[in-house]
ethanolamine-phosphate cytidylyltransferase (Edaphochlamys debaryana), 343 residues
Amino acid sequence: MIRNWLASALGNARRRRTRPVRVYLDGCFDLMHYGHANALRQPRPAPQAKASGDELVVGLINDAEMIRFEKPPVMNEEERHTLVDAVKWVDEILTDVPYDLNPEFIQDLFTKHRIDYIIHGDDPCRLPDGSDAYAHARRLGRFREITHTQGVSAADIVERMLHCYDVNRFIKDGEPHPQGPGSPTCADTQTILSKFPQRKHLPTSRRLVQFSNGRVAPGGARIVYIDGAFDCFHPGHVKILKAAKAQGDFLLVGIHTDEEVQARRGPHLPIMNLHERSLSVLSCKYVDEVIIGAPCVMTDDLMTTFNISTVVRGSTSETSCLGPVEEERYAVPRAAGVYRELH
């Protein structure tokens, strides 16, 4: 009922206007994850963020405001800006916005920035005095709610990291790595893993379609391939994906399985499971398509099936310290002369 009314109201607003309908969504966006991306995406048919308007303007709350009203963010403002700017549904970012949407700032949004509606999740956002941070926007009839993504948050990710620390306590000084020579039995590994049960995101075909561009590489396109774990998507991932995309016309990203990541990093990783990591990578504007569960060692079949023109790798990566193992992973593209290392 509400969704039908919102769609009708926005449709009428578009017909009355010659300019785009602009919506505003603010936040800290700390430890940027697929839940944040889900709030910023344009889903069909649910009215999430950009689907409520033609242009999405994001307000990035700075470090000082977060410390004043809530808690210090894990990532600083520059890092958080890099991550928000990389989300493919974001049209514009406003910095130094207040945590509390006071009447003066809201008026500035409506006049200076031509905002039509203020958007926020259906989870409560309270000021220190207990009042609703969006109360004034609600009274003006210019506030719209979106659905909060359950099962993931910055606090949840930090908790997962702390559980990983607990697991590492099983590794005493001088003992071998859990997945190295002399590693524990499968039963021992499962005992360790049972110490920190992770929430398991269960993907649906609809969610994958919503996050996907739906793009197909045109004939003759130079397809660039990069692979990895891409765990806890961060500014370094954004920078290497941007550099990779610059090497061709279409960027294909291979996401390794949880089992593959555990084999080289230990049973306590990855922090985010395969599908959570895939959604984070898919939300990046430099990425055209992902292979969910890509093989770690590249083969002729993989190169041919996806018509890969160039394979790239960062000069410093999670496996660059493994020497011969790293050489083996990219032996096929190296032999074909299509391997390139990016700084």
Q: What stands out?
A: The CA atoms of residues 201 and 276 lie 7 Å apart. The longest strand covers residues 55-61.
